[in-house]
## 1
Amino acid sequence: MIRFEKVTKQFSLQSFGALDLSFDIEPGEMVFITGKSGSGKTTLGRLITKEYSPSSGEVFFNDQPLSQIKSNKIHLHRRQVGVVFQDYRLLPELTAWENIALPLSILNLSKPEIDKRVTDLLTLVSLAEKGSLFPSQLSGGEAQRVSIARALAMSPQVLFADEPTGNLDPDTALEISQILSKINSLGTTILFATHNPDLVANSPKYRLIQLENGKLVQDTGAKDKPKSEPLETKPLESKPLESKPLESKPLESKPPVQDSETTSPNKVVPPDQEGELPKRTPLTPKSWKRLFSWGLPTLKLPNFKIKPGPKTPSKDQTEKPKSKPISKSEKKKIKKV
């Protein structure tokens, strides 16, 4: 599925993110990629997503050389590789539900498809009751689980987790590792980059690749794959936008919202259907673009009226000093002279 053939990525004369790497990763594997900070774990992930191009060698994905992918087709390749970041990278203006639904809204999927997909993902990461919360209202472990669910929204074949437990305590880190192991048991290929030796020690059945200064120093080889039916990983197709004229509809009276006691605790309710929170405008392909255009708020300063100072006359406007009139006595003195 993924194959590195003598791949080298050189940043400077003495700095290598990858140095003569060669290995294969089979579909359905879970691989721990370990090494100290700066050993090349993140570089390996960016080579797979084609954020980096190798200085030499070749990276293959599904037997296709990544160097042959055209620039206008890279986004199709990246839909097959989900990425989980150490710092979560959730949009703070969106709820957990909306963060997961955002990539599906970009593809212009229908609302029922988005609702079903987001509900399944929140249930998978055990956050069925917290879809309406914002990232600032979640703990570090919960925010990372939302990040994992968002990475799985596009049904990728490969999930690259780049230090997903680096900011978490040991117990929460173990929970994240167990969630990734569960996802792998469903058929998704997992690449788990970490420098935590305890996580690796607790999962001896999985393959280990150790890097040091970009070099491959240890590879335990492919392990036995879990016997389970793989997930369907059909690529999602984007639908063309349709411009429809706006129609005015009469206001409809909505039935009263049921009490929280009558609702099922395991049912995920979209934020725009929840009774306790104010109604939010659902994401649409036209409205998601403005999410990336926010900035600092414009400050409304008071209008200060500045009094004009004295005008300085120009050279042309400067008046010449007027001469005093000469008296008669002075005229007589001048004549005598």
## 2
Amino acid sequence: MRSGLLILRSIPVAGSITWERFQAHQFLTRLLAEQKREQRLGTGVFLGTVHSAKGLEFSHLFILDGGWNLPAKSEEMEEERRLFYVAMTRAKRFLGLFRLAGECNPHLAILGKEQGLTFVPSPARLAGPGPSLLRHRILGLKELFMDFAGRCHPGHPVLTALKDLNAGDELGFGFVNAKLCLLTPAGTPVAAVAASAREEWGTLLPRVSRARVIAMVKRRRSDCKGGYEAKILCDDWEIPIMEVGLVASWGSF
């Protein structure tokens, strides 16, 4: 046993040992499953079944709905009720019970009647537009005009703004001279969307929640081929790689 890891070494034995290996596998499977159930790391969120939470306690506990249907037999109903009670007693300070629309949870009905509990509807169930999701998309070199900043003289505000950019900085979108550009908070363009991707990104603009720099790529005059190097006015410049958050409603998936 090394640092909680049990190491087995195969030993040649005459004859068949298939059954012994099977028993060892079964034992180790149960042992590892039990260790996984009992091991607690850090102070994060524990997500598990009621059975896996037996013997544990939590300062804040939430019991989800779904699957707590009315059993066909009365003895099964009593067993389900005890299980639900065990789940509730895992809470030390706060207990939150969820009720799923369309489900018939007999335990919640009893609590509401005998204990006077009142269930508050979720905001997602109220009238109005549904909740929003945020999807992320990378705006990289294939969709950017890589020579945009290279066509600026040394000391140009575009090059100065690029030198001040760091990973994590946020940029905005805007049109400059008919080009869809990435702008600093001060309004300085630091990159431009390539002509081949301009139409697609133009349609995505209403859904953009945020655009964040995740990397800076250096490009040099010698990287330009096909006669384009003649239009380059500086030796090197940087291109921001962006992570763009796009808002989408549930119905768009």
## 3
Amino acid sequence: MSRGNEGTSGKGSGRQGGKAGAGSKGGNRRSDSSQARDGKSPARGNAPTGKPATRGGKNQVIGTSRSGKPVLKKEYIARKKSEGTTKPKSEAEGMRLNRYIGNSGICSRREADIYIQAGSVQVNGEAVTEMGFKVMPGDEVKFDGQSITPTKKEYYLLNKPKGFITPKKGERTSKTVFDLMSSATTAKLHVVGALTRPSLGLMLLTNDLEMANKLNNPNKPLRQIYHVTLDRNFKHEDMVKVRNGVLMDGEPLHVHDINFVEGGKNNEVGIEIHSSKENIVARIFESLKYDVKIIDRVVITGLTKKDLPRGNYRLLSKQELINLKML
């Protein structure tokens, strides 16, 4: 009985406490309301005490800035609307004229500067000689009277067969490497690592003239591996001579590696060089009185012939392009 009475008493006390709490809370609300009418307490949302509103509508605090200040919803919405109507930086600021010309594949940026100074370039019908002039969206650019536009950069790897040549500028000849690329693109392509007509193997072709000039620079290390077949067995003492360096055009040429081809005959040699000098491999062996029967470039700038049959080409992958631009 005593426990029951105590429980009842406790339970009743709890309900009374609850009512008292509710009454007290309600009393506080009425008190707050009265104070608001008397001007002693601010209306919700005005936040004159320096504390931003945290609930409701556009005054809702949705985060903080980098400086630690609260960010209101209405401020965030206004900023996003502003960003949506703002043009991208590149479009708003335009493109330098020499870069515009370079991207069109006509010439390099440095060469473009010369043509601009000579008055060979017109923008919207007027000759422009100002260095640093910027082309804006919608402008018409003409080079020697012909309209030009920047083109998307394309990078191809070609496995050249025997009998095709890389023509020199202005040279007209049959069976060129560009004939092999005729179905790939209409862009004007430039060759990296030109090969002679009898030579085989890998070549790079691109409409990115600046990249082509960079990789074709004779002083630029361009990793290449060749499989060379000679008219007779290659002597060990001659291999030592090549390893120690040979003179080409009065200058020492360092050969990164040279050895017999694994599984091949003694007249088959693998040679790795890091030079882009034209026809350099044949000249090395000819300087030692050998006749070169076959030259096959099997690696160029880390790219190989894997899954690329003779006479075929392919686009470089994104990763291959990243690696190429890092050279």
